[in-house]
Amino acid sequence: MRFIVGVYLFLIPIFAKAEEVVPVVGKHAASNLDSVSIILSLLLVLVFIVACAFILKKFQPNSVKLSGMKMITSMHLGTKEKLVVVEVDNKQLLLGVTANQITLIQTLENPIEVGQPLTMDIGQNIVKLLKKNEK
Questions:
Q1: How far apart are CA 11 and CA 17, in angstroms?
Q2: What beta strand segments (E) does 10-115 contain?
Q3: Residue 85, CB-side half-sphere exposure with 13 Å CA sphere
Q4: Domain map of the chain by residue range?
Q5: Which of 54, 60, 79, 121 matches a 20 to 30 Å C-alpha distance to 130?
Q6: Which residues share a beta bridge with 92?
């Protein structure tokens, strides 16, 4: 009899554990999150990052001073080629810049006027950019 009581007392915890409910992972998470909405959210974030990079690049000042030299303007001709006007010692030089070399094309006799510097009101600059792109 002791043996049966001992086995019964030994088996009670095993039966109790078998009846426990296993918690469901993610039960309280939103049920409407499927893979399409997650991909669209990630794409929206990527588009936002690209738009911010474009806006910041568009509103950088054109004039950069480096130890007596000043870049007046530049014009991209291809992916790695551009024309650059640089002012050195009050002379403006037209340079051709490629991935491999920089070539002096001409010394300009009539200097190019420097554009207006970037103002602190970036909101007005964005509105001007948008109006210019609409035309």
A1: 10
A2: 64-66, 69-76, 82-88, 91-97, 102-108
A3: 18
A4: 32-61, 62-111
A5: 79
A6: 87, 108
